[in-house]
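Final report, Chapter 2: Outcomes

The project's central promise was a pipeline that accepts a single protein chain and returns its three-dimensional structure in a standardized token representation, suitable for archiving and comparison. That pipeline is now operational. To close this chapter, we reproduce one record exactly as it appears in the project archive, with the input sequence first and the structure output second.
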Amino acid sequence: MNRNRLNTLTVAIGLSITSASTLANPQAFMSSRSFAMGGTGVASAHPSDAAATNPAMMASAHHAWSDDFGLMLPSVNARVADDAEVSDQVDSIQDTVDQIDQAIANNDASGAQSGAGKLRDQLQAFDRDTVRANASLGLAMAFPSSSVSVGVFANGNLIVTARGEYDQDDDAVLAAIEAGTLPPTFADSLESRGKVLASAVSEVGISFARSFDVNGGNTFQLGLSPKYVNLRTFQYTETVSGFEDDNFDSDEYQTEKSGFNIDLGAAYAFGSDQQWNAGLAIKNLIPMELDSAASRPFLGEQVRTLELNPMATAAIAHRGDYHVITAELDLTEKEAFGYEDNTQWLALGAELDAWRYAQLRFGVRQNLASNDDNEGIEEKTQFTAGLGLNLLGVRVDIGALFSDADQGAALELGTAF
């Protein structure tokens, strides 16, 4: 095995994110504003990002300067969790393998013996260490109206997880080298492997919403979003010596399924100045699922099922001329597809507004479904922050996310009037 092959493992993970980032959405897509406010939006979304959170909010009253048109073009965000420094471990393992290969070529038994002991420790430490990456992209246009509000959208999110797996058979190979027996070839005899699991869900649709007057001045909004959904999975397992980047284009490792689905939303504005807003959103009303390929059972691959089940979220928000404060709770738990936690978020978000021209945002969310028995990276408490600027009719939103495991960023361009 040479340096290029194991470096390919790291590069291929990145390539898979790049090639599929327009396809995806295992979790719900978030606008940059939502990203910066702890993932909230069911009771506080602006018209342009209402389809991604709660279509009813497209018909809700916002500001006079943003109630006629909203555009998101585009919105992108990404997160990476690599607390085990998987990429650095791959480089170190590759260096050691090269040293052993060179020692064998030079008939240097002591150098090979020293390298074999070091490699065993590295491979055992690498076992079950995991890296996860999320990438998202969204586009939307909204036309709020006093009668029927209409919007169009296309968005997605990709989750890729990769991990190392130590094979006990490699221990015998390394033990033989430590005992002084040098094999004619070494790298190709290794069975420790890298595993990549990816899930992607893209959606494109149209949203409708309408507001109704109730109870002496309060308003009630209803919304729905018929949409076309595409599911994809990718599973690839290969020994560290045989990993090839061109295999990421092979159909035998991918599965795909498409169909129609629908999101529903409701919102209720109340209070003396309708400063309170309660929201409820149900995404993916029609359950969908897709089994992954498992073309290499001899390397431990098993069929996994990507499930797109109905997801319900409830929220409440208080808003004024210069602030929005909101709390949000997932009423359902989402099962993980790859090497990660299940998720069920309880989130708080806040936005401070400076006369339309600038917004400062904060958020925090806690994963109620996080547990120590998950297959990969835990997702517990996440903190977010962001800034919005409105200059010459162009809106720029940026956001950041950090936790013990994750770091992320978001960027969005748009306009509203």
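Archive annotation: The chain has one domain: 3-416.
This record, like all others produced under the grant, will remain available to the consortium after the project formally closes.
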